[in-house]
Amino acid sequence: MERVSLFHSVIYTGLLICAFALDGPQPITFILGLTHGLIWIGMSITSLFAVHYNMINLRLAVAITLLGCVAPFFGSFEFLRQSHSRSSVTA
Predict the structure, then answer these.
(1) pLDDT (0 to 100) of residue 69
(2) Whole domain around residue 70: which residue ranges?
(3) Of 26, 32, 47, 78, which one is least surrounded by beta carbons within 10 A?
(4) Total structural domains in the chain?
């Protein structure tokens, strides 16, 4: 899920650049927007199951599900933060 979240952030960055800096060239903006939406829906559903099976915590699921639709950077940041804190504990 962490890699998909980072990929989602890259797609969303491309969407922002196309939509605002490049004045929305079609069909690239549509494809990036559709990809962002589909990845967000998939990540939201997956995170609900992952919380249920104790694979991720609720804070991460909230970052993915509620904040991910407007800015997937929150979920990516939370993945990286938790990964860093896990590696600090084991080291």
Answers:
(1) 74
(2) 2-90
(3) 26
(4) 1
